Amino acid sequence: MISTANKYALKLEDVCSHVGTFELKNISFELGGGDVLSVLGPSGSGKTVLLRTIAGLIKLDSGKILLGSHRIDDYSPKDRKVGFVFQNYALFPHLDSKLNLGFPLYIRGKKKKEVYVEATNVAQELDGLPNYLEFKPSELPEGMKQLIALGREKLNECNLLLLDEPLSQLDRKLHIEMRTLLKKFITDLSKTTVAVFSDPEDAIALSNYIMILDNGEILQYGETFEVYNNPINIKVMELLSRLGLNIIDLEIVGGKIFKTFSVNLPDGLYKLCFRPEEIEVSNKGLEVISQKSYIYDSSRKIIECDFKGQVLKLLVPKSTSQKFKFVPTNPKFFNL
């Protein structure tokens, strides 16, 4: 168990809350001080409801929220020492970038001149932002709005940082650049962080713990790569698969599949699941014929192929022939 003596540790015990008819149900987990948790799930799964409940923006129906040794669910949002970066950035349209960045200092009573100095210093740490300090939000590119929303939390006296879809508003090229910057920002800040994502690639890249949420309930929680490599069911594996999931219905007979490949599982009916990118083209393996192909990047393509009447999607080298064999490198078998 993680000690809540660490003032940045976060612990939820059987937390329930609701918005309209949607319910967050018995959420329990512990996150050590300085750790980063990604919350991943489909739209409407309760990810943002969870963040807002932790922040005190949604009332708790039952359960406990502890930050360090303090139970904070009875505190007002402003007294919880929780920083929140909203999906839409929550910038003040009438303020320039410097004052938006330094707003936490301004509301604590610092003079505008002092706020400008500290905001300018923080901006120097955020790539490209110093060039936009005189601009108002309506004049800013999306990436700069995100940097201001993030940079503001460096000046906020918070013990816990909550991020709601911090990369969702960005185009693909900027998205990748900002993900690298966000990783550095979180590492430098060294605060316990809970971040919501819809993209599994972002969730995996930025966290050391991950929670899979669906319909207001935790499906799986644990260290990021442990959950990625050992999903407890097909739903979890699908949510952690950016390119989709291949599923083949099969029967294990005499410890073999397709009468050829040995597996260390009891005989019976299974679903074999594997990600399109987790395969190896080989002289031995499952034989398929490509039916459609799409360029993925400069060296690879995605192909759709037929295998015993089931359509598979595979990520292969561009030079792969129409007919070939492959082996899943990280296959998972789920009982029917």
Structural class: alpha+beta
User: What characterizes the major β-sheet?
Assistant: 6 strands, mixed
Distance between the termini: 34 Å
Content of β-strand: 35-45%
Report the top-level CATH class of the largest domain.
Alpha Beta
Radius of gyration: 24 Å
Average residue pLDDT: 87
- Categorize the overall geometry: globular
Order of the strands making up the biggest sheet:
6-7-8-3-9-10
By CATH, the superfamily of the largest domain comes out as: P-loop containing nucleotide triphosphate hydrolases
CATH topology of the largest domain: Rossmann fold
Q: What portion of residues is helical?
A: 10-25%
- Count of beta strands: 20
**Number of alpha- plus pi-helical segments:** 9
**Known CATH architecture of the largest domain:** 3-Layer(aba) Sandwich
Q: H/E element string?
A: EEEHEEEHHHHEHEHEEHHEEEEEEEEEE
Structural description of this entry:
With 336 residues, the chain is α+β, with helices and mostly antiparallel strands. It folds into two domains: 230 residues, P-loop containing nucleotide triphosphate hydrolases (Rossmann fold, 3-Layer(aba) Sandwich), CATH 3.40.50; 90 residues, OB fold (Dihydrolipoamide Acetyltransferase, E2P). Helices cover 24% and strands 36% of the residues. It contains nine helices and 20 strands. The strands form four sheets. Strands 6-7-8-3-9-10 form a six-stranded mixed sheet, sandwiched between helices. The chain has a five-stranded antiparallel sheet with strand order 13-12-11-14-20, with no helix packed on it. A five-stranded antiparallel sheet has the order 15-19-16-17-18, with no helix packed on it. A hairpin with a 3-residue loop joins strand 12 and strand 13. The longest helix has 18 residues. The chain is globular, with a radius of gyration of 24 Å.
